[in-house]
Amino acid sequence: MKQQPGSEAEFVKINGMQQYLLHTKSKAAQAPVLLFLHGGPGMSEAAFAYAFQPGWQAFYTVVHWDQPGAGKTLTKNKNTYPGMEELLGHLRGVVQYLKAKYQTEKIVLLGHSFGSILGSLYALRYPQDVLYYIGAGQVVSLMENERAGYQKVKELIVRAGNQRDLKKLTAIGPYPQQGYDKTMMKKMQGVRMLQGKYKIGMEFGPILKKLLKSPIFQLSDLGSLVKGLSNNKALVEFLFSHSLANESLAYQVPVYYLLGDRDFQAPYPIAQAYFETIRAPHKKLWMVENAGHFMMLDQPAAFTRRLADLQTQTAAAQTTAG
Questions:
Q1: How far apart are CA 157 and CA 159, in angstroms?
Q2: What is the mean pLDDT of residues 113-142?
Q3: Domain ranges of the chain
């Protein structure tokens, strides 16, 4: 198994399944453990850690987890795609493993994109395990996101006067459709490509190049990426029918958001509006300038600076509480 310099990779049996973890230990004393929850569903981000994570070790011991249905965990467990409750159960198993491994009572959760739904639900359900929660590219409602993201890219296309792209968008037809089916997923792919082109989502060309350069990349990872993004039907169906706004708005742990100011794949105004409604022991929202949905790759240095700001705020909040 390929290793990333300064990191340790392992497969751990969680709930009867061999699951991939990538650890990068902090040299700082008393640094909390941060578990990174990737997006998708089905898009492992461990292979990108080399490109955006340097500097995080000043604040955290960082652990990337390839969720069931994604990445190297999917390669090890072919054609295994969980539902949301099952995935939350796997996450709880990973959290308990990390608490024991690092001898800590609580860990930090950082959820990106789909992982932000997973992390939010876990923080609401199991606050006793969570030191604090960080939402990056926070998703609140997939359907709201798709409506707003479609309108934004249409606005940018019209403003640019690009008739070819306008025809592509118009050809997609009514959008979004309610619910998961192959037609809607194809439409979503078309919208995603245009969002990437107009720099309000994820630019897949640069992402693919960074994936291929990763020190832990294997050809099987590319296959898992394609399969993971195409076959996590139960999780996508959950997203089409779910909104965080319908869950409890009372978090029992501190909540912090890092949002890209160009992100209209998970439109930042929707996340901002939701953030205003939640209650938490401490909460704070930061914008990452000139960043789209994959803000860690778009602006790695700025994202790391925001993490430093977050650590300062956390320490101040804990001092005040003490």
A1: 5
A2: 98
A3: 8-141+216-321
Task: Decide: 61 and 35 in contact? Cβ < 8 Å.
Answer: no
Record the pTM. Answer: 0.95
Residues 6 or more apart from 144 whose CB is under 8 A from it?
Answer: 243, 267, 270
Residue 70, token pair as written in the block: 């994604």
Query: Which pLDDT tens digit goes with each residue over 140-197?
Result: 999 999 999 999 999 999 999 999 999 999 999 999 987 778 889 899 999 999 999 9
CA separation for the pair 135, 148 (Å, rounded): 19
Instruction: Compute the distance between CA of residue 265 and CA of residue 278 in angstroms, rounded to an integer.
Output: 22
Q: Over the range 112-130, which residues count as b (16 or more CB within 10 Å of their CB) and which as e?
A: bbbbbbbbbbbbbebeebb
For 206-224, write each residue's pLDDT tens digit: 898 999 999 999 999 999 9
Q: Which residue in 144, 133, 139, 61 sits closest to 284, CA to CA?
A: 133
| pLDDT band (50, 70, 90) for residue 1 | low
CATH superfamily of the domain spanning 8-141+216-321: Alpha/Beta hydrolase fold, catalytic domain (3.40.50.1820)
Residues 6 or more apart whose Cβ sits within 8 Å of residue 159: none
